[in-house]
Design goal:
alpha+beta, DNA damage, nine-stranded antiparallel sheet, DNA-3-methyladenine glycosylase, 3-methyladenine DNA Glycosylase, Chain A
Length: about 220
């Protein structure tokens, strides 16, 4: 069996524009080490850009700076973990432009499946059945629960530090070709209505762990091949 070589992403890997970083992160492995030493791993299969500036869907729209969105203005590779309603979290990573970040939308489980399921089930009341592997991390809040990522533990976290042991991202050598779908974002509020069609979401074609497919965009891409 051939040995698979992997390396941890460093500062220079994250120093990219938001759009470039969103595509670059696809296929990379997000690794979370729990306090007991357990390693949870998931391949990044879907990302989404939030550009700041004129992007009305961004928390940094029009250059807004608050205590909450400070990580969006921190150096590339800094995590921005914010809280949605009912205590759900979302994981973002800052890019090189001030106020811009990439939302990690979906993962494909690589290892630690049983622990991920336990964490998800513990968050869901009155559940009596197991969760399908493809449903464990197919959404930004789902993956945060499954990887035990919270604002309290991992906000403003420096992913570029080669010595940190709580969370990092790796890439592996691979000859596998990866087709990427570029499509619109999901779940934007009415204040960002005109930004709904902006092609700022990216996902790996034919991956079953993606939160929402764009079949029209997939057909168009397949036609090019």
């Amino acid at each position: 069996m051939n040995e698979i070589n992997s390396r941890r992403l460093l500062k220079e890997d994250y120093t990219k524009s938001c759009k470039d970083l969103a595509v670059y992160l696809l296929g990379k492995t997000l690794i979370r080490q729990l306090e007991n030493g357990e390693l949870l791993k998931g391949k990044i299969v879907e990302t989404e850009c939030y550009l700041g500036g004129e992007d009305k869907a961004s928390h940094s729209y029009n250059g807004k700076v608050t205590k909450r969105n400070e990580p969006m203005y921190m150096p590339s590779g800094t995590t921005y973990v914010y809280v949605l309603y009912f205590g759900y979290h979302c994981l973002n990573i800052s890019s090189e432009e001030p106020g811009a970040c990439v939302l990690i939308r979906s993962l494909e489980v690589v290892s630690g499946r049983e622990v991920m399921e336990q964490l998800r089930v513990a968050k869901i009341k009155n559940i009596s059945k197991t969760i399908k592997t493809t449903d464990l991390c197919n959404g930004p809040s789902k993956l945060c629960i499954a990887m035990d990522i919270t604002r309290e533990s991992l906000n403003k976290f420096d992913l570029t530090n080669p010595y940190n042991s709580q969370m990092w991202i790796e890439e592996q050598e691979s000859d596998e070709e990866m087709a990427v779908i570029n499509t619109s974002r999901i779940g934007l509020g009415p204040s960002a209505e005109e930004w709904k069609a902006a092609p700022l979401r990216y996902y790996i074609l034919n991956n079953k762990n993606v939160s929402k497919r764009d079949k029209k965009a997939e057909k168009e891409l397949m036609f090019l091949y």
